[in-house]
Amino acid sequence: MNQKLLFSAALAAALAGAMAAPLAHAGGKEKCYGISPVGGNDCANLAGTHSCAGQSKVANDPGEYKIVEKGTCEDLGGFDKETALKIIAEKSKG
């Protein structure tokens, strides 16, 4: 029974991630990391600790993102995924 539940949860997370990526680029939008308030993220985080919107625990976490108008992320104080991954890597080094 637990394997079935685990498989279902993994499948749901994979589908949610696959569906969210095209939404970010639709209509001139992009993912902007590091700007979401507590509970204000738009989907899964880079750490993989959750897979849903509204589950961020820390404001401006570099692993959480909001969908914003393309070209506005930097103005909002955020960054792209590549930069977010670099920031997370640096923090994990200590």
How would the blueprint of this fold be written?
Layout: H1 2-25, E1 29-33, E2 65-69, H2 81-93
Characterise this structure.
Helix content is 39%, strand content 11%. The protein is an alpha+beta fold and 94 residues long. The protein has a two-stranded antiparallel ribbon with strand order 1-2. Mean pLDDT is 83; it is low at 5-11.
Quick recap:
The protein has two helices and two strands.
**What is the CA-based Rg, rounded?**
14 Å
Widest β-sheet, arrangement of strands: 1-2
Task: Count the beta strands.
Answer: 2
Structural class: alpha+beta
What is the N-to-C succession of helices and strands? Answer: HEEH
Main sheet makeup? 2 strands, antiparallel
Share of residues in helices = 25-40%
Q: Count every helix, treating DSSP H or I runs of 4 or more residues as helices.
A: 2
Distance between the termini: 40 Å
Mean pLDDT: 83
Form type: globular
Q: Which regions are unreliable across 5 or more consecutive residues at pLDDT < 50?
A: 5-11
Beta-strand percentage?
Answer: 5-15%
List keywords for this structure.
39% helix, 2 helices, 94 residues, alpha+beta, two-stranded antiparallel sheet
